[in-house]
Amino acid sequence: MRGDRGFPVRLRFSKRGKVRFVSHRDLARGFERAFRISELPLAFTEGFNPRPKVSLGLALGVGHESDAEYLDLELAETIELETLASELSESLPVGVEVDGAVPLVPRAPALQKAITSVGYRIRPAMEPLDVDRAVERALTATEIQIETTRKGRPVVEDLRPGIRRLRVVDGAVEVELATQPRGIRPVELVGALRVLAGGARTDGEDRVLRTNQWIERDGARHEPLEADRAPRASDDARATSKGTPDDRGHDHPGTEPDPRPGERADGGHADTGPGDPRGAVLASPAH
Amino acid sequence: MTTDLRSDLWPRIEPLLHGVEKPARYIGMERGSQAPTHHPDRVSWLLVYPDTYEIGLPNQGLQILYEILNERDDAVAERSYAPWVDLEAEMRARALPLFSVDTHRDARAFDVLAFNLSAELVYTNVLNCIDLAGVAVRNEDRRDADPLIVAGGHCAFNPEPLAGYVDVFVIGDGEEVVGEVNEVIAAWKRSGKGDREGVLRELASVVGVYVPSMYEAHYDGSRLAGIEPRHPEIPPTVEKRTVADLADWPYPKNQLVPLIEVVHDRLNVEVFRGCTRGCRFCQAGMITRPVRERPEEQVRTMVRDGLRRTGYDEVALTSLSTADFSGIEGVVSDLVGCQDGTGGVGVALPSLRVDAFTVGIAAQIQKVRRTGLTFAPEAGTWRMRTVINKLITEEDLYAAVDGAYSNGWRRVKLYFLTGLPTETDEDTLGIAELAKNVVAVGRKHTKGASCTVSLGGFVPKAHTPFQWFGQNSVDELRRKIGLVRDATRRTGAQLKWHDPEATFAEGIVSRGDRRLGRVIERVWRAGGTFQEWSESFDLGRWLDAMAAEGLDPDWYVTRHRREDEPLPWDHISAGLHRDFLWQDWRASLDEHGLPDCRWTPCYDCGVCTGHGIEHVVAAAVAPAGGSQGTGQDLAVGGAVPVQFLGTTRVGGTPVRAGEVGRAR
Q: Is any Cβ of chain B less than 8 angstroms from the Cβ of A187?
């Protein structure tokens, strides 16, 4: 069980530039090598073939960039988290930058289950006017049927309920998509927009940037670094090194509202949501 | 200084990548990669591996040259790999040239395009890459300032099929000669790249360099009569280059760590080069002599630093027959000894001989991680194995697999060749017999024991004792594979085999002469790239091309050669005396074995004496245990079950490996 013995940590990282063409799985292998290069004291599974306790969050499509990727790992001993980000970035592929590392409460829900919605900024290979028109139509539509495949089978699905917010900013589509019960892929959304714009398409690539991930609990959205962060006392690794791991975090409320605003300059992690009046905001249970 | 507008093609490449398979093949950025600064005073090399990125990236030869060149003040080197067909189509549609993965520089902007030739069937990809670079594919059509097309690697030991397409071949170890070649090209570059003929002539005088346009092929009717230099100062024979001491070349120092999964995706450390076991079918063993071991301490350092730098958790100790490395036990036990419950470091030994010692090593290794265990008896009967000089007794094999199954392996893999000289159906069926017995040995230990039999058709190679042998036809190979398939049904042995048609195409090129060039060009023009890939391979293209050129495939492939026939590679020397090879070929037909000269007296194959080099081995005796492939158990002595050839003395001086080998 996560965090029973070791010290769980959540990392946030960006994936920008050429490295966007590296798949989620290959990037995971890159992280494992980076952990070894930086001699991170990872906790390992027991048994004949020990594996490091590392779990990546939601997969990011090949070719997409991101400012908000997350990864959970478990350490066998505590270390100084302040310097971890820069040390790791040095060992990771160019374009992958770790910009946050926080201790987690024991048994924090796994990222894959905890994340409830994801924000993207998409530049579709479409004329700006077509983008505007498609988004307007999407916002007024009661359902948006798309043909897609699930587990290799063709299915028809309605995208509309999973679109939490949608607007156009400077020609880019900003969207928040629900990840549960199942995640909508950005390419599915763009495909739908293209149909809504009457099949419009220009030559080129739809560029996708993941801007945010959120964990929604009891009506409040949390940035994943903050959602299950261990209490401040254990922020400092030296403070926790005296106690046994099981001493930590007993009283930590897992659903504590965002205790600190996001640390990054763009401030996009606090639960403020996009505020541009130009884009209509679709009904969102959180607001 | 003018800006080279062609220097970065990334803005044109990037928009194409979202639509292609495995786009990360084309982005570079591997740990260990370099972004060298181009400069008019520096010769720029594009090192091209003519197959996919996943196959080409781990190639150690390419990585070694990449580092050595980039360490020089007068050179820069970048890398490229054959783009897969999806990207190639996009590139051709947009007139986008071949590019480097390091800085995405136009291939045409390099002074040299250097190809690694590790298999014959990649030759059509070589032409395709030259063409994608915007360079004329035939060397006679190139203009003065065009990039020089260079090639090296094992297949360069018969360069003739590409003689009309490659400007410069480099024969043998590249570490030293690449610098000498670079200096000649640097002078040419400084002079404004005017006189292409002049620089080629100069390169031809560098030892180890073959410039095919400086040589004329003569024919006697349809037969090759000989290949001779066009000018008196051009050497009639090109001698291979050999690095005398591997300790001077601890490369690669910064092994590339790819961002996507590739073959051999682990740290690779070469522990020795060369092999003198003398397997008669094995070109690598013949052309890389003599044995040069890396000092054990240097191996440890390279492993330790390499793991730390790359973050890999697996290391392969590479060489031919790796268990022959004097330091094998020490290095392996150190690696498996430092395990601490954190996954540890896996050790891979990709080339292992068959004996108990080997299994002992493997058993140590699998304490960390159980990898596959592969043995290569190569032939099904003892008679056949004396013909090919792979002197493994059945007892060796059964003891080895017994050790494997008792150590917990449930499946072993066995490699065999079929279509070998003098092979009878009894020999062929012996493969199935061995496999059956191996499974039976395994079932004593575990109920689910099985083995995989991998069966390849034999292709005779240049500079081996079998270079005179007529390869089996497609039908004959099919029939033999069928024999083994029928005999292994319901035995617990699973048979996999290589396509006999691909084996035939490889045979066309393997011993081809200059005339084969037009055939390769036709296959390429007909769309035949990626011929190593079964989905792209079509023997029909090769046969059509042969017919169009008026060449008889059987004359090249299935015909036995006579002793006095000039061979297309007679002017290329791997140091092996032709007499030695012929004598060994006759000995093979007489079912005579030949011992390993590392541990027995010299039989004067010609390599050491001709090149003034010698074995570099740390121990004068073979590592302990097993038969060591000599056919006898060296630990206990005893009768020699094979008749060895008499050994010769070199120049009146008795030479023993133990005396000439430098103790370290």
A: no
Q: Which residues contact B621 (CB under 8 A, 6 or more apart)?
A: B599, B634, B658
- DSSP bridge partners of B418: B457
- B149 — alpha (psi -120 to 50), left (phi > 0) or beta? beta
Separation in Å, CA of A133 to nearest CA in chain B: 25
Q: Do B261 and A29 touch (CB under 8 A)?
A: yes
Q: How far apart are CA A162 and CA A177, in angstroms?
A: 6
Q: What is the C-alpha separation between A223 and B655, in angstroms, rounded?
A: 75
Could you count the other beta carbons within 10 Å of the beta carbon of residue B297? 13
- CA–CA distance from B412 to each of B7, B171, B377, B516 (Å)? 50, 36, 12, 40
A89 and chain B in contact, CB less than 8 A: no
Average pLDDT, chain B: 90
Q: For A164, phi and psi rounded to 5 degrees?
A: -85, -40
Per-residue pLDDT tens digits for A90-106: 999 999 999 999 999 99
Is B476 exposed, middle or buried, given 0-12, 13-18 or 19+ CB atoms closer than 10 A? middle
Do residues B318 and B255 lie in contact, with contact meaning Cβ atoms separated by under 8 Å? no
Helix (H) or strand (E) holding B68: helix B60-71
Given a cut of 80, whether residue A274 has pLDDT beyond it is no
Name chain B contacts of A23, Cβ cutoff 8 Å.
Answer: 24, 260
pLDDT at A284 over 60: no
Give me the mean pLDDT over the A238-244 stretch: 34
Q: Looking at beta carbons, which residues of chain B come within 8 Å of A30?
A: 259
d(CA B372, CA A256): 50
A279 vs B405: which has the higher pLDDT: B405
In this predicted structure, the answer to whether residue B596 has a pLDDT above a threshold of 90 is no
Mean pLDDT over B272-287 rounds to 94
Distance CA B159, CA B166 (A): 9
Q: B341 and A50: CB-CB below 8 Å?
A: yes
Q: B506, B499 in Cβ contact below 8 A?
A: no
Q: Which residue of B has its CA nearest to A61?
A: B18
- Asked whether the beta carbons of residue B15 and residue A205 sit closer than 8 angstroms, the reply is yes
In DSSP terms, B412 is beta-bridged to B373, B451
B138 confidence band (pLDDT: 50, 70, 90): very high
Among candidate residues B256, B257, B258, B260, the one with its CA nearest the CA of residue B20:
B260
Nearest to A18 among B27, B341, B342 (CB): B27
Task: Tell me how far apart the alpha carbons of residues B427 and B417 are, in angstroms, rounded to a whole number.
Answer: 11
Q: Does A49 have pLDDT greater than 50?
A: yes
Contact A22 B27 (CB under 8 A): yes
| DSSP, res B189 | H
Reported ipTM: the value is 0.89
pTM, two decimals, is 0.89
How many interface pairs between A and B have CB atoms less than 8 angstroms apart?
A: 73
B139 closest CA partner among B214, B73, B45: B214
Tokens of residue A117, six digits: 């919605």
CB contact under 8 A, A44 and B341: yes
Helix axes A24-37, A81-91, angle to 10 degrees: 120
B448 pLDDT above the threshold of 90: no
A81: DSSP letter: H
**3 state DSSP class of B114:** strand
Which of B17, B343, B344 comes nearest A21 by C-beta?
Answer: B17
Residue with tokens 């042995």: B493
Q: How many CB atoms lie within 10 A of CB A200?
A: 18
Write out pLDDT tens, residues B346-384. Answer: 888 887 777 667 777 777 877 766 667 888 999 999 999
- At B626 the pLDDT is 45
Q: Do the strands A145-150 and A153-158 form a parallel or antiparallel pair, or are they unpaired?
A: antiparallel
Angle between helices B85-93 and B123-132 (to 10 degrees): 30
Q: Is B178 on the interface with A (CB under 8 A)?
A: no
